[in-house]
Amino acid sequence: MNRFLLPLGVFIVLVALLAVGLGLNPREVPSPLIGKPAPAFRLATLAHPEKTFTPAELRGQVWLLNVWASWCVSCREEHPVIIDYAKSGRLPPVIGLNYKDKREDALRWLARYGDPYLLSVADADGRVGIDFGVYGVPETFLIDKQGIIRFKQIGPLTPEVLEKKILPLVKELER
Amino acid sequence: MKRSWLWLATLCLLAMPALAKEAAPLAADPEIERRMVKITEELRCLVCQNESLAGSQADLAKDLRNEVRELIKSGKSDDEVKDYLVARYGDFVLYRPQVKPTTYLLWAGPFLLLLIGLIALFRYLRRRERLLPEAPLSEEERRRAEALLKDDLS
Q1: What is the assigned CATH class of domain B21-98?
Q2: Fewest C-beta in 10 Å: which of A7, A173, B64, B87?
């Protein structure tokens, strides 16, 4: 009996490890930017290309940077969630980073699906995206009053992520 | 007649650079290209995670290859270029992770498992050795065995 106990134990541990491994999402690579200052940028806004926006303007506020594009399929899935939460007034200001998109397409997309953003900026060549370590649109960054990135969501925002992670963190950071 | 052939040949030659233009970015500077490939072969593309940055056709990989080219052009060393990407995308982009406290287990793990396996094997063999009874043949048995062997051979 005892002979089988050890191999059985090893087997159970192995199965447990593999089960956990299967449950992990390999697409979610932890960002090294969490806890670091958000990269500075100055980009033209989507609506008024002659105006620019830089994150320094939101110093002292907690805000979200949502990376989106009109060509991005999951963005369409995420968009109604942002709109709902923005309408209810529970979201901090959301800045859209329009990633590698054409201006006309982006504007048409916002006209069609709604515009929950304080403003969107155009990152046509994806340079700012690279600075933020963006690799799979949509992505969302939570930035605190000091301009530090506190949280990154890879993939669409869901009510679950907002309720369980982002909104509690926002409340804490706004204090 | 001969003249017109010559003209045609000249025209063809003139047209060749235009045809060759397609591949221009690659040949722009072979030295930069060589270093770019060397660096990006060691980096993981985050979009298709089992491809290197050098081999991936994902848009992001193309952008990052351009970024690496420009960093090289601006005089950055190979390590500085890698640090630039690690600062943005994390250690995950390195196919050959750095040796540091968080990666000790990763580097030493296989050797540790090998060591555990060897110790287990060694102990198992020792125990088996002890289980086997030391039983030399008696004189009678040896004779019988010899007889049997001889019988078999003939």
Answers
A1: mainly alpha
A2: A7
- Provide the pLDDT for residue B23: 46
* B89/A133 CB distance under 8 A: yes
Spans of chain A below 70 pLDDT: 1
B61 Cβ contact partners less than 8 Å away, ≥ 6 residues apart: B45, B47, B48, B51, B53
| B90 Cβ under 8 Å from any chain A Cβ | yes
Ranges under pLDDT 50 in chain B: 20-24
CB contact under 8 A, A32 and B63: no
What domains, with CATH codes, occur in chain A?
32-174 (3.40.30.10)
Chain B nearest CA to A171, separation (Å):
27
CB contact under 8 A, B90 and A31: yes
Tell me how many degrees the CA angle B90-A136-A72 measures, rounded to the nearest 5.
Answer: 165
Neighbouring C-alpha atoms within 13 Å toward the C-beta of A11:
5
pLDDT value at position A139? 94
Chain A residues in contact with B50 (beta carbon < 8 A): none
CB contact under 8 A, A32 and B64: no
